[in-house]
């Protein structure tokens, strides 16, 4: 089973991906995560991507497609691939179609998580990660036991992502509306779009996801 997790920044794609990966043994490819790793390791690619990411813009298709190709080669032993945050514009979707057809792979579902913007902005504003182990928290929806400190690490400090600030949130949502949202029509025409109410708790949303996949 091959799926695309689709939706605006902060809607909960990463949160659902963690559950899906375990439950269905899928290879999880988050282009955002992969890019953040490149930035952290200060690779050439990371240096090129960093500026666009911090401004909430899309990284060039050439860089992102390279990452996708490299990761797809590692899918053996899994029940399929879960693309999270890719494709993000029509050219990326067309490139993906070409890559998949060369490998005789088809997409089964495009899970489109949907939510009001107000909820999305609150989720993004509350998101924090431990600087040691990477565990994620949300000060509104999933707070740590002690404010600003990781529950799991002795000296882990919680911090927001570099692109998690009010101005960049709005820029990312605008980029989503202008460049990414048109993909809904692209996938609806192929009969693959599955809209999902993303406004409930993470477990409630996952129940909706499972209804589609099972
Ligand atoms: P990326 O990392 O893909 O970020 P995004 O799409 O903006 O999505 P987020 O990771 O912000 O949110 P999410 O939907 O995963 O939500 P989450 O589960 O964390 O991309 C980052 C950047 O990389 C882009 O801006 C771009 O520059 C670049 N990039 C990436 N892919 C690219 C591509 N294909 N082409 C070009 N550039 C690309 O949830 C958010 C918060 O809410 C969390 O705190 C979570 O705990 C909480 N939460 C989640 N679900 C719930 C719930 N149901 N109830 C309560 N709280 C919840």
TrEMBL record:
Keyword Kinase: yes
GO biological process assignments: AMP salvage
GO annotation, cellular component aspect: cytoplasm
Keyword Magnesium: no
Region (NMP): 30-59
Binding site for ATP: 10-15, 127, 200
Location (main, coarse): cytoplasm
GO terms of molecular function: AMP kinase activity; ATP binding; zinc ion binding
Swiss-Prot/TrEMBL catalytic activity: AMP + ATP = 2 ADP
Binding site for AMP: 31, 36, 57-59, 85-88, 92, 161, 172
Pathway connected to this protein: Purine metabolism; AMP biosynthesis via salvage pathway; AMP from ADP: step 1/1
E.C. numbers: 2.7.4.3
InterPro entries: Adenyl_kin_sub, Adenylat/UMP-CMP_kin, Adenylat_kinase_CS, Adenylate_kinase_lid-dom, P-loop_NTPase
Name of the top EC class for this enzyme: transferase
Compartment list: Cytoplasm
Protein residues bound to Zn(2+): 130, 133, 150, 153
Keyword annotations of the record: ATP-binding, Cytoplasm, Kinase, Metal-binding, Nucleotide biosynthesis, Nucleotide-binding, Transferase, Zinc
Cross-referenced Pfam families: ADK (PF00406), ADK_lid (PF05191)
Ranges for domain Adenylate kinase active site lid: 127-163
Family: Belongs to the adenylate kinase family.
PANTHER family: NUCLEOTIDE KINASE
Subunit structure: Monomer.
Role, per record: Catalyzes the reversible transfer of the terminal phosphate group between ATP and AMP. Plays an important role in cellular energy homeostasis and in adenine nucleotide metabolism.
Domain free text: Consists of three domains, a large central CORE domain and two small peripheral domains, NMPbind and LID, which undergo movements during catalysis. The LID domain closes over the site of phosphoryl transfer upon ATP binding. Assembling and dissambling the active center during each catalytic cycle provides an effective means to prevent ATP hydrolysis. Some bacteria have evolved a zinc-coordinating structure that stabilizes the LID domain.
Protein name: Adenylate kinase
Species, as recorded: Candidatus Raymondbacteria bacterium RIFOXYD12_FULL_49_13
């Amino acid at each position: 089973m091959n799926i695309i997790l689709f939706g605006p920044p902060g809607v909960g794609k990463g949160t659902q991906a963690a559950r899906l990966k375990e439950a269905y043994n899928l290879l999880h490819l988050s282009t955002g995560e992969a890019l953040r790793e490149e930035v952290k390791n200060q690779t050439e690619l990371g240096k090129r991507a960093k500026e666009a990411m911090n401004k909430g813009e899309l990284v060039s298709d050439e860089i992102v497609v390279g990452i996708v190709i490299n990761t797809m080669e590692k899918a053996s032993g899994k029940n399929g691939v879960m693309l999270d945050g890719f494709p993000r514009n029509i050219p990326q979707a067309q490139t993906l179609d070409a890559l998949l057809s060369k490998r005789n792979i088809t997409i089964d579902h495009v899970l489109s998580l949907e939510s009001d913007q107000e909820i999305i902005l609150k989720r993004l504003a509350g998101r924090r990660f431990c600087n040691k182990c990477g565990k994620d928290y949300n000060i509104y929806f999933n707070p740590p036991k002690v404010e600003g400190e990781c529950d799991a690490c002795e000296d882990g400090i919680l911090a927001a992502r570099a692109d998690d600030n009010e101005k960049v949130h709005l820029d990312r949502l605008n980029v989503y509306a202008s460049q990414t949202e048109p993909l809904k029509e692209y996938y609806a025409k192929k009969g693959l779009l599955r809209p999902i109410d993303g406004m409930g708790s993470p477990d409630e949303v996952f129940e909706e996801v499972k209804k589609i996949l099972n």
